[in-house]
Specification:
Layout (H helix, E strand, L loop, with lengths): L8 E6 L6 H10 L5 E6 L11 H9 L1
Parallel strand pairs: 1-2
């Protein structure tokens, strides 16, 4: 690629309801493998959530 650097972008989608130590482990490993990690907090229409989307997003950001 002529003068352009290639960036590795990872995507980790999930409901994170709630976020667990397993999720945090995967996130910790993933950030070492990519330049940017996007964590997509999703809604599962098939089950009632324990936490709101806003609460789960805050958990992921903390």
């Amino acid at each position: 690629m002529s003068g352009r650097s290639v960036k590795r972008i990872g995507l980790y989608p999930g409901t994170f309801d709630p976020i667990t130590n397993g999720h945090l482990d995967i996130i910790g490993r993933a950030v070492k493998l990519v330049d940017k990690l996007i964590i997509g907090v999703a809604i599962n229409e098939g089950k009632g959530p324990l936490f709101t989307l806003e609460e789960r997003t805050k958990m992921v950001l903390d």
